[in-house]
Amino acid sequence: xxxxxxxxxxxxxxxxxxxxxxxxxxxxxxxxxxxxxxxxxxxxxxxxxxxxxxxxxxxxxxxxxxxxxxxxxxxxxxxxxxxxxxxxxxxxxxxxxxxxxxxxxxxxxxxxxxxxxxxxxxxxxxxxxxxxxxxxxxxxxxxxxxxxxxxxxxxxxxxxxxxxxxxxxxxxxxxxxxxxxxxxxxxxxxxxxxxxxxxxxxxxxxxxxxxxxxxxxxxxxxxxxxxxxxxxxxxxxxxxxxxxxxxxxxxxxxxxxxxxxxxxxxxxxxxxxxxxxxxxxxxxxxxxxxxxxxxxxxxxxxxxxxxxxxxxxxxxxxxxxxxxxxxxxxxxxxxxxxxxxxxxxxxxxxxxxxxxxxxxxxxxxxxxxxxxxxxxxxxxxxxxxxxxxxxxxxxxxxxxxxxxxxxxxxxxxxxxxxxxxxxxxxxxxxxxxxxxxxxxxxxxxxxxxxxxxxxxxxxxxxxxxxxxxxxxxxxxxxxxxxxxxxxxxxxxxxxxxxxxxxxxxxxxxxxxxxxxxxxxxxxxxxxxxxxxxxxxxxxxxxxxxxxxxxxxxxxxxxxxxxxxxxxxxxxxxxxxxxxxxxxxxxxxxxxxxxxxxxxxxxxx
Amino acid sequence: xxxxxxxxxxxxxxxxxxxxxxxxxxxxxxxxxxxxxxxxxxxxxxxxxxxxxxxxxxxxxxxxxxxxxxxxxxxxxxxxxxxxxxxxxxxxxxxxxxxxxxxxxxxxxxxxxxxxxxxxxxxxxxxxxxxxxxxxxxxxxxxxxxxxxxxxxxxxxxxxxxxxxxxxxxxxxxxxxxxxxxxxxxxxxxxxxxxxxxxxxxxxxxxxxxxxxxxxxxxxxxxxxxxxxxxxxxxxxxxxxxxxxxxxxxxxxxxxxxxxxxxxxxxxxxxxxxxxxxxxxxxxxxxxxxxxxxxxxxxxxxxxxxxxxxxxxxxxxxxxxxxxxxxxxxxxxxxxxxxxxxxxxxxxxxxxxxxxxxxxxxxxxxxxxxxxxxxxxxxxxxxxxx
Lengths: 604, 386
Prior knowledge:
The structure holds two protein chains of two kinds. By secondary structure, chain A is an alpha+beta fold.
């Protein structure tokens, strides 16, 4: 009985297996039939399609937008980059060809050997790149003889060209291979292999504007990839040109003034926030990114301790030092707790809870009022003022003058600076605020950090009477209203007091920035700063022992604007490890301003 | 091994046989292995050309390593396991795989828009691959345990259908239509051989056909696109129709004898996308022509026939159905892939068995082949009782 069941199932299963097998067999027959149909019956037809007339769609890259300065001078353009390629199959003996070719282009024996090896590895109907980045002479020399070299072809592609090399390199930025992050960020655009994306500066920030929309070229292509004829062209949409607010003359002057120094310069129009010059030093040549680096070159650039690839103007964090006294003075005036005529006696230091807070001048300034304290940068005066105001009042005023927050200048990676407060210290260090910390904040030391760009905004705010404009690298269109971040209401009297103090910094015999006096008697106002990098050792007498190590020297700062009565330009300068603001930074600002007034005059 | 030793019926559980090593080796289906090796070597030749010769040789060598690993697994699965191991653990394996599919759904990693992989330490586990084998074993076990005389009606098929549909639901959601269709094909074949009543089968076919419009609405836009494209590839020659048009040109231009090794202009000039994975058959057809294509189809047909012979000789229901499942896993992929390349079926991501570049599908297939060989080891032809 069991055996019957078993046999019955077995028989049944065999029938069912046959059914499944039959369905499969039918499937295979259909596949075989289809293969026969495509390959044997219609093979000739498809062969024609494959070999003679194949439609190939080639993307046409959109020319990237060019970048101009405020006077429409070209800062970045596109230039053709030529390469010569050969299709080995059509070329005949390659060694002979390269030999003959080396009469017209620079082709070493070594390179020829390498090419021949490469040709062996590669399928012979694919083009082989012989040489890239051809010079104009090489291009024209080959072009007239192209018929003597069957299989040879000249290809061109458009590459970025920076005619003034390192001029404004940090503002412009450079291009590079897109990373995953770039693809995510510019997800609305597709990057084919070999296409580049802005990696820094305005090239990065305005990538979407600059890039444009690629077009398509419909071509008939034969089996070896040669173009037979063009069928249809869908032209690309070129990227938009950018007109920067940068003034090349000022930019160049500022770059030259910085010379070998490390640091940053920002010059802006205090009346609308346009940035006229933005320098970060040392610089690099963005053309290098197009030509490519050797390993050693790249190492030298990327591991240079002076960080040439960083734009220190908006990414450098520096203690503002005495330039911060402008903020403290303004906070004092606005609070009503400060009578500008009231004098404070400076004997060279201030004692608080057993701690000595020194003035930079060990012997003291004697009796000073606000204007004198600014002129001579008396620290003791500002210790006392800061104490009277309290840290939180200072912090509020600093934010109202453009410090402690990113400005939104239109460059990636901007750093916000830091203005400490009680709440901040509680949050970050979980500790309470010490009175001594208010003192050192009063002279722009301690936790305070700002970027050179923020310092320029701060001094521009004083210059224009209280408006914090959003700094911009794009030239404003005629009639375009500049964007305002914050509007302060400073009284004429307060502004006048502050102006007197800052003007005296430059023009008073006791001022700290005599070296900033402009040519042609144009009156300027400014404030020096010397920000401490390392804690100095002091002898018992209080005499500072300055380290001889260059990296431990103080940073030199200077902020200023001119002309004092109707300010047209505001400048901030930071020279890393430059020593005194008055001696290292002020002359840089002077050169930039002199250049400005030589070009535009001081009136109107 | 003789009649008296095994007092068990065909319909009940089979007796346990333990074989010596020499006996296992003697019984190993060497002809199956030979056919597999032939096909794999055939595949190496095509792949070498498809990856562009020496330029991407590493891809080629990786495939050689993956294939060797696969062969090792096959032999291991066939020889190492005891007779009833697979049956005993079938449900456990199935439940585990289903659980992993669910986990993948929740926390799998996303690649190319689909959520298919689970990061396990340093490698990525494609959980749907596990399910392919698990489903075969679980269905075979079910029908083995619930054997009955006569054909199977609706009531007998509730559980098996659920066993097929559950993992399918997860996999469709991933979305991976190709694998889901594959599971359906494999599952249905097992049910057919297990003894579905003709009336039920007939109704099923009618219902499936009628529900097509409904299923259509459930498809992703890109999946609909592929089906529309199948019937009129010229509508979108650069987008979804590109694969099919280029593939047909490649295949058709191969003619009777082909253009020769490494000389297919369609394949070598980058006209053909995915040429080393899903569209590798086009490379073969272009470079080796009709003769090459038919040779491979014949090799496949021989392999499948050999597998069916093993099924026919299987010792019990579990063995028989396992072999049917494993064979169909292989056969359905061949038919769907080649059908797709030749423009007969919509483009779904199913690789060509043993030929396409890719590790996980190769490993799964070879494990299935190992199961098949394992069944063969204990089959009737070796004097095992009937």
